Hints:
By secondary structure, this protein is an alpha/beta fold. Helix content is 35%, strand content 23%.
Amino acid sequence: xRERLSRxxxxxxxxxxxxxxxTPGPDLRYLVGYDAVxxxxxxxxxxxxxxxxxxxxxxxxxxxxxxxxxGGAGIDIRTWGxxxxxxxxxxxxxxxxxxxxxxxxxxxxxxxxxxxxxxxxEQYAAGAVLSHMRMRKSPDEVAALMGAGRAIDEVxxxxxxxxxxxxxxxxxxxxxxxxxxxxxxVTADFVIVASGPNGASPHHxxxxxxxxxxxxxxxxxxxxxxDGYCSDETRTYALGDPGEDYLRAYAVLQQAQRAxxxxxxxxxxxxxxxxxxxxxxxxxxxGQLFIHRTGHGIGLETHEEPxxxxxxxxxxxxxxxxxxxxxxxxxxxxxxRIEDIVACGGDGPVLLNHRPRxxxxxx
Length: 363
Ligand code: ZN
Ligand code: ZN
Ligand code: ZN
């Protein structure tokens, strides 16, 4: 933790900021291991560019903060009472500041209150610094994401048994949410069961649509493990025969997805991974139907940097973890997506999901 805090302080100094102000959320958890619930009362980790970090916390949250790794690390916890002004407290810790980095996840009302308390301090989004650190995973973090990958694989292994004509997407989704918890996640963060024409909407969740023979069904699911790391995996299923056109397009998608993750290695840019998938789909006339980026980073958040998208010239580095999830979406007809989480290894891709990528036909 001390190592992460001192790196963050150094990067803040490099950015010309006097401090980082971090409120409950993934950045706070990443820096000091404190999984605080974001509430209206201000909890704020003040990380000065030089000097010791201080956690400003409501008096009633002191026991929780002290029980977290913050307590063990001996970080100073400065509490405030119900009628005190916590923003003043933060301002008094940073006299003469002219620039501060503010947590990307900070509530607007808190950022505005800090601005009022520190009118001379210009605010910048701290994500530039924090995502620089967070997108380069340590081996421990990659191992944590592997654990999340195994857990969600287990859920997908059970999905075919849940898909039957006559059940609704909502019923299937409820069963999947229960399985996400049973396999070791602490929360089921999203459950997409997109059957038939609903598959054409990439972020469809569930509806009362009844599954029918001939449906293709996109199942994209994920949750958060007790250590905070997230899972996210998509497989596409079919109830009976989805038809020739669909099978042909699916085969191309499968090649595109495979080619994209096979291209992962240090030095290759994020946008070129996107291009591999897109070029393959375009070559078969499916490019117009691939309406989103190829992937997103994953860690303590399901969507974080690096984004695998055209225009992102960031070269991959060992330890970066992200999804590779091309799809095709034909409005009114059907959709498909195949999604795996991939870690960039020292000389190639390390897949964190292992379910077969063939269309799973349920009879
Ligand atoms: Zn998505
Ligand atoms: Zn995803
Ligand atoms: Zn997904």
